[in-house]
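subagent[fold] <- orchestrator: predict structure for attached chain, return tokens only, no commentary.
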Amino acid sequence: MTDKLSSVFAKITSRGVLNEKDIDEAMSEIRIALLEADVSLSVAKSFIAHVKEQALGEKVVKSVTPGQMVIKIVHDELVKLLGAESCELNFKAVPPVCILMVGLQGSGKTTTSAKIATRLQTKQRKKVLLASLDIYRPAAQEQLAQLGLQVNVDVLPIIKSEKPADIARRALNEGKKGGYDIVILDTAGRLQIDQTLMNEVVEVKQIANPTEVLLVADAMIGQEACNVAEEFNRQVGITGIVLTRIDGSARAGAALSMKMVAGVPIKFLGTGEKLDEIEEFHPERLAGRILGQGDVVSLVEKAMETVDKAEAEKIAGKMLKGKFDLEDMLGQLKQVQKLGSIGSIIGMIPGLSKFKNQIEEAGVGDNLIKKQEAIILSMTKVERRNPDIIKASRKKRIAAGAGVEVHEVNKLLKQYEQMSTLMKKMGKLGGLGAMSSLMKNMPFGGKMPGGMSGKFPF
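subagent[fold] -> orchestrator:
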């Protein structure tokens, strides 16, 4: 959808003046882009009607840059469609506050429960208890127990043959006795909506009296996501939506419809499989990503959360002293991977998101970083600290250990040499004179699409 909308905007911004015919054509293309991305027909029609009404107004027609004004209108309407403002979880109740997780099987409920618990425990210093009510899916309760162990969040002990309603009661009692702030109940899902599932969830809701009922929905299931949201809201009553797999490349436009269909806010986005890959939903930021305008704020927030400040300062100090070695380069690669996939990082950088697919197709992405990491890890510590000793026989051994060709080892060493030279220059120039040159030789390598010649403008 981002690619198609970018194409439409490129056409209208290239024209100095827009007439009604130009706007009609643009609206038609935007409508097609929305429908192809699985936005529901009713939502697409309503969205286009609002945009067109404003786009034909005097404000746009008499604007110095009418094309940019249309883009702004589309952006503002997207923000309204997504919810206008972010919405925090409701904890206004006597502890332990209960959060009920619902959704279809395979939507990522269990992992999302652990992600939210981790976020609440680390960011808001809440004491959280997780409990699995899924007695049907094999090893579902054990899965939550393992996830809780990984992130150091308490999980209600499993009692075999216990019914979901009884598990909910026991979880709430344990929550009170253990002084927990929050109890998260992970309910069972089905492959499709059925009345048995709904009856069970309704019963648990009556017992738990949750302040939040969060519907976990896979952003990649298309129009069915809207039907799921509508049905759960009608029968159970949901207070918010968590969209998982928002990082997927499939058509995820149904996400735009869910808030309008269910009438409840989207509260979180699942951005990957790792337990820290979840973020609070900000309509304005997502609208920026959809329109190819990036999301620098979220990228900076993620960097502040994940990058090891002490390690970064240590590497920076070595850089300025001209003592940058392959151990440091390995550290840099690991720091980049903590930020998420290269595709997700690129999607957050203004001006680069439109090249996301081309960059990934060109091999300048996660696979390249993993390959470079494997090459460095195939070296001995002595070799990493003294790259000059790596000659022909060592290169063959390193290539065999990493499962790559010798020329790929040579390429990595050349990139290291370029970076090392620039680090020394930066040390002499106080760290600023060579900064622009450094950015041209980041360890991604290769030619960038769109005439970017191996450099990132950030």
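orchestrator: received. Logging for downstream: The chain has three domains: 2-82, 97-293, 300-451. Residues 406-428 form the longest helix (23 residues).
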